[in-house]
Design a protein that fits this description.
about 90 residues, mainly alpha, 3 helices, elongated
């Protein structure tokens, strides 16, 4: 029983290291994609003649929502391996 528990912990930490290494590559990519989305929306709305009230309301709320969704996705991706294997630390 103790050996099974030890193997599970070794597997968990090995999997966690892989997950963190993957996330170190994915996190900057997600933030870069958020930035690209905001730039495209900002340029398109400027070309369509958006005034300053657009940028202080809809554009701002959309950007904050996009960043919050990105943070939730990152948090979920980091937490998922912990509970997927039934090991709570």
């Amino acid at each position: 029983m103790k050996q099974d528990l030890e193997c599970t912990h070794k597997y968990f930490f090995c999997k966690m290291k892989t997950s963190i290494a993957d996330m170190l590559l994915v996190i900057p990519l997600l933030f870069f994609l958020d930035w690209i989305i905001m730039v495209v929306i900002g340029c398109f709305s400027s070309l369509c003649g958006a005034n300053s009230s657009f940028y202080t309301t809809i554009y701002l709320y959309f950007g904050v929502t996009l960043l919050l969704l990105t943070f939730l996705l990152i948090f979920y991706s980091l937490i998922k391996p912990i509970f997927h294997h039934g090991i709570a630390v």
